[in-house]
Design goal:
The protein is of the alpha+beta class and about 300 residues long. It folds into 2 domains: about 5-170, no CATH class; about 180-300, 60s Ribosomal Protein L30, Chain: A, CATH 3.30.1330.60. It is built from 7 helices and 12 strands. It has helices spanning about 75-85, 95-100, 100-105, 180-190, 210-225, 240-260, 285-295, and strands at about 5-10, 25-40, 55-65, 90-95, 125-130, 140-145, 150-160, 165-170, 190-195, 230-235, 270-275, 295-300. Helix 4 (about 180-190) crosses helix 5 and helix 5 crosses helix 6.
């Protein structure tokens, strides 16, 4: 089941230790600290040409992963939301997914990247709480989930130099969840974006890689001979319709060639097509939206 994303900004008594999420099974994925930096904390829904306020101070960003697929994201943040009123925080702003501004709102948020942090762009909730003096003055939480893993991103903003010199800490390397997540999403929803592919601007040539998503897909196809998929190329809206359709088709075919000729997938299992700019997942009015729309998706046709 898809789960909501939630973000909260909270204030605690002291910044000496990273916030304990209070969720059973939560493990530290990564943590970064800076004695002085800035972070964007939206205080309203996304609007075109609106600048997001910037909060400055000592920053700590922490990501936790929760190996419990039965928890909703509201359950992931509930231990923190329950304790926040006791720390003197006041709610500044709250919203959910499309009311926030969807894709555009999420990409206003300064989060640590994948694979430690994953955000479902289609379903999330935002809550901002602040305190004018107590450190940390603001703490932003983002709860999200993939098919198998829950994610909690915590951003604490305190007075300058509350933390030591900038440093980064990452938990011991574990087996990546990318493979099961990609295939589980494909089977559960019928489609998935191959997010790690790289094409030069205006080109249909797929760069050398390697690409974990293609290796995962090729391996799954080899172990699932009844599966049939189609690769669908997409572009942004820059250019004439016939040009974007042709480019998206060529990009899908490049990925098909890499899967079949380079990774040994069966040609009978993989088709290719292009949709041009006709199926956007974000606004083409922003650079971030256009970047998201330039993609290749896998669509599951059958498992027979």
């Amino acid at each position: 089941m898809r789960r909501a994303i939630a973000i909260a900004t909270i204030c605690l008594a002291a910044p000496a230790h990273a916030l304990d999420p209070g969720v059973p099974g939560a493990t530290l994925a990564t943590q970064q600290e800076s004695a002085g930096d800035s972070v964007r904390l939206p205080r309203g829904a996304w609007q075109p040409d609106t600048t997001v306020p910037v909060t400055e101070g000592a920053l700590r960003r922490t990501v936790y992963q929760i190996a419990n697929p039965n928890l909703t994201t509201l359950q992931i943040i509930d231990p923190l939301r329950t304790t926040l009123p006791d720390a003197g925080k006041e709610e500044t702003f709250t919203c959910a997914d499309q009311a926030c501004g969807g894709f555009d709102f999420r990409f206003q948020l300064d989060l640590l990247p994948a694979p430690e942090m994953f955000v479902d762009l289609g379903n999330y909730r935002y809550l901002l709480m602040e305190h004018p003096t107590n450190d940390p003055k603001s703490v932003a939480l983002v709860a999200s989930s993939s098919v198998d893993v829950g994610y909690l991103h915590v951003t604490e903003v305190s007075s300058f130099e509350s933390f030591g010199p900038a440093e980064a800490t990452t938990a011991p390397e574990t087996t990546s969840t990318e493979a099961p997540d990609l295939i589980s999403t494909l089977v559960d929803t019928g489609h998935v974006v191959l997010a790690d592919l790289d094409f030069a601007t205006g080109s249909a040539d797929l760069s050398a890689g390697p690409y974990a998503s293609l290796a995962t897909l090729a391996n799954w196809l080899g172990n699932t001979p009844g599966a049939r998929v189609v690769l669908v190329g997409h572009t942004d809206s820059v250019g004439a319709l016939d040009e974007t359709l042709a480019l998206s088709q060529r990009r899908a075919q490049s990925v098909q060639t890499r899967l079949v000729s380079g990774l040994g997938a069966s040609a009978g299992q993989v088709a290719a097509d292009g949709a041009g700019a006709l199926s956007p997942i974000a606004s083409n009015l922003t650079p971030e939206g256009r970047a998201a729309n330039r993609r290749v998706e896998v669509v599951l046709l059958s498992l027979e």
